[in-house]
Design brief:
This protein has about 700 residues and is of the alpha/beta class. The protein is about 60% helix and about 5% strand.
């Protein structure tokens, strides 16, 4: 019957999702009244359920935009808070609690908030209506309430009672109408009483003659008239029904009918007065429908205007470039996979080999330091920098068991290092680091959700392959744990490489010394400290046990730095010594391996690396290259729901703005289309009326 209102309510809810501007406000019925005037009771009688916050204290602190949706073919009655996403709530006491919480969330300092709560109630028993419940006017500010509360409520109500809204002014019959705050407020904005409906509650509390005379008030005549109601829930019902269950409208109207029919002289239909909640509902529907119809043209213009603005923004800012969350994700994913492909082209066996060799070079250096270079270092004295062990090394007796054992032990430390695990870790870490780097350069950089999904995709595959790969590698290098044959060519290459490694190490040590120099405050200062530390070591000077101030006039930090520098310069001297040994003719011959452990260990590590690389490539790298893009498809493609895709795209503020404009435009177009439907509806109706 009230098809227009239904359509308009539908349009309104679409507009709400667009984040409508004020220009798009469709007319509503605004409910005002003093506290305890019976405002809540009237609204609940219309809805048929108790759902509004109750309590002696003022509990309504925010406007409630109440949309009633008639669902003739459904049995269920439920409420929804579209902004909260709580789903359909069938328990009305739950709705009541939610409303109370939302109201109480407004801080006391703010008194009231003009941010409306949106609530939609769907039921076969409600009419299609759009109502706005406002905080009740208060007469006297309570002792625990802020003084400005009264004014703030009045201001909030004033905001809402502007045209094109219809005002439902609630007054209680037992209070003189001249004192009704609601009527006084509406009279100010609607002096000729054209869009105000007067509701007089508590008709049962005054005698019927007086009640009847109130409804024909002449002081503030209303075109839409006054309606008298008895909308209190009869006490029996409250006892009978559990709170929040069951529809109360029939109980209310039975109670109400009983009262009005007990006074036929004043309230029978023949008497011509409007009474009863049912009458009120009908009136509300009619009035809203008419008001909606009247504002149709203005609303349509406003929507047109909004649409034009959205279209313009889309053109100017986004060059009419279409975009959807899905297409954005698909493009981002393609881009990422492409960059991964590029990465794999530059990350193959040679790169893995190089990385591994570097890692093992480091391990070999550590081994050398521990097994061969340790002696002079523990002594920490430059005087001993050419110690017997090192200086003797190149001249050592080739038959000496001591040097044989030393090299065997070192070689075995290297081959039993757990190459499988070390190598797999190095490669897996490198892959993961590169994936992270690719993410950082991709569109996904601004998307925490996708970042995580990609990182997890990579680590998932790597973790899954880790143990089998590392076991495979370990198995394959096993023979080297027993015997290592070296060819001349290998020796020559090892000699060259080992020299390079030592040279690099030497540079690093020299850099470190310069660094200490800088920290300490110059070459000279450092030389002084080092000199002191050295003399102390030889026992020439005494170092006090005053740890805090140090000794020799040097602070303890300075002394630590001095020791560090001394260690480094010992190490540098030693490296130079070994470099010249490696370059000596003696080390050119692989048979002298006991005197040139640096070269021999380099050859061994190269062999280990070559074998490891073969298996790492098959077991880890190729597998990863194959699986990773597929895993990405699962985690960021097919595996995502529409909502997740949407949420993903909106993580980026630019994309969000772009999507918003498109959505706004589409929704406004949809709304306009619906408006055309409404217009057709209106004109057929008018034609039919004219024909009658
Ligand atoms: P609000 O503060 O304006 O929302 O008023 P309420 O709807 O909470 O009503 C205030 C009090 O008046 C409650 O105790 C209601 O039970 C009572 N009341 C409401 N309507 C009627 C009515 O029509 N008749 C009678 N006797 N009491 C009513």
């Amino acid at each position: 019957m009230m098809a227009l209102t239904k359509k308009m309510i539908e349009i309104r809810s679409i507009l709400q999702t667009v984040g409508q501007s004020n220009a798009l406000n469709l007319p509503s019925i605004v409910v005002i009244g003093s506290q305890s005037s019976g405002k809540s009771s009237v609204l609940e009688a219309i809805v048929g359920h108790e759902f509004l916050p109750k309590g002696s204290n003022m509990v309504t602190r925010r406007p409630i935009e109440l949309t009633l949706v008639n669902t003739p073919d459904a049995r269920a009655e439920y409420g929804e808070f579209p902004a909260l996403g709580l789903g359909k709530i069938t328990d009305f006491s739950h709705i009541q609690r939610t409303l109370t919480e939302l109201n109480l969330a407004v801080p006391d300092s703010q008194c009231v908030s003009d941010d409306p709560i949106q609530l939609t109630i769907s039921s076969p028993h409600v009419p299609d209506l759009s109502l706005i419940d406002l905080p009740g006017y208060i007469q006297v500010v309570g002792h625990d309430q802020p003084v400005e509360l009264k004014q703030k409520i009045a201001d909030l109500c004033d905001k809402y009672i502007q045209p094109p809204n219809v005002i439902l002014a609630i007054s209680a019959a037992d209070v003189d109408l001249a004192n009704s705050t609601a009527l006084r407020a509406s009279r100010r904005v609607d002096p000729r009483g054209e869009r105000t409906i007067g509701v007089v509650t508590k008709m049962d509390l005054v005698d019927s003659t007086r009640g009847a005379s109130i409804l024909t008030d002449r002081k503030y005549p209303l075109r839409l008239g006054y309606v008298g109601v008895v909308s209190r829930v009869p006490p029996v019902t409250t006892g009978l029904f559990k709170k929040g269950s069951g529809n109360i409208s029939s109980a209310i109207s039975r109670n109400e009918n009983a009262f009005f029919s007990a006074h036929p002289l004043e309230f029978s239909p023949e008497a011509g007065l409007s009474v009863g909640t049912t009458t009120l509902r009908k009136k509300l529907m009619q009035v809203l429908e008419q008001t909606m119809a009247a504002s149709l043209a203005t609303t349509r213009d406003a929507i047109h205007q909004e649409l034009e603005e959205a279209t313009y923004e889309f053109k100017v800012q986004y060059n009419d470039r279409p975009l959807s969350a899905e297409s954005y994700l698909a493009e981002s994913l393609d881009g990422f996979k492409h960059s991964f492909k590029e990465f794999t082209d530059t990350f193959g066996r040679p790169q893995v080999r190089e990385m591994l060799k570097e890692e093992l070079d480091q391990r070999v250096l550590d081994l050398l330091a521990a097994k061969y270079w340790n002696k002079p270092i523990t002594n920490l004295s430059p005087a001993l920098v050419e110690p017997e062990s090192l200086a003797d090394l190149p001249r050592a007796d080739s038959g000496s068991l001591y040097w044989h054992r030393k090299l065997d032990a070192s070689t075995s430390s290297l081959t039993k290092l757990g190459i499988g695990r070390v190598a797999t870790t190095v490669v897996a870490n490198a892959i993961q680091a590169n994936v992270d780097h690719l993410i950082g350069r991709s569109t996904f950089a601004t998307h925490p959700f996708a970042r995580q999904a990609i990182t997890e995709a990579a680590s998932g595959i790597l973790n899954e392959r880790f143990y089998s790969t590392s076991d495979q590698v370990e198995n394959c290098i096993k023979p080297y744990k027993f015997e290592i044959d070296v060819e001349d060519g290998e020796w020559a290459r090892g000699r060259e490489h080992a020299a390079g490694v030592l040279k690099n190490e030497l540079h690093a040590v020299e850099d470190a010394v310069r660094n200490v120099e800088k920290v300490v405050g110059g070459k000279r200062k450092l030389r002084d400290v080092m000199g002191f530390v050295e003399r102390a070591r030889k026992g020439e000077v005494m170092v006090g046990d005053d740890g805090a101030t140090g000794a020799g006039g040097f602070s303890s930090e300075l002394l630590t730095k001095g020791k560090e520098a001394l260690f480094l310069s010992d190490r540098a001297t030693l490296l130079r010594l070994r470099l010249s040994a490696i370059k000596s003719p003696q080390c050119a011959n692989k048979n002298n391996k006991y005197f040139c452990p640096e070269i021999f260990l380099d050859v061994v590590s190269t062999k280990l690396v070559s074998t490891a690389v073969l298996f790492l490539n098959v077991e880890l790298l190729s597998e990863f290259v194959y699986q990773f893009p597929r895993e990405l498809d699962v985690r960021l493609g097919r595996g995502l729901s529409r909502e997740e895709v949407e949420r993903f795209a909106r993580e980026d503020s630019r994309i969000k703005a772009h999507l918003d404009v498109i959505r706004r435009k589409e929704l406004l177009e949809l709304v306009l289309e619906k408006m055309e439907g409404v217009r057709d509806l209106e004109s057929t109706k008018r034609e039919r009326e004219r024909a009658r």
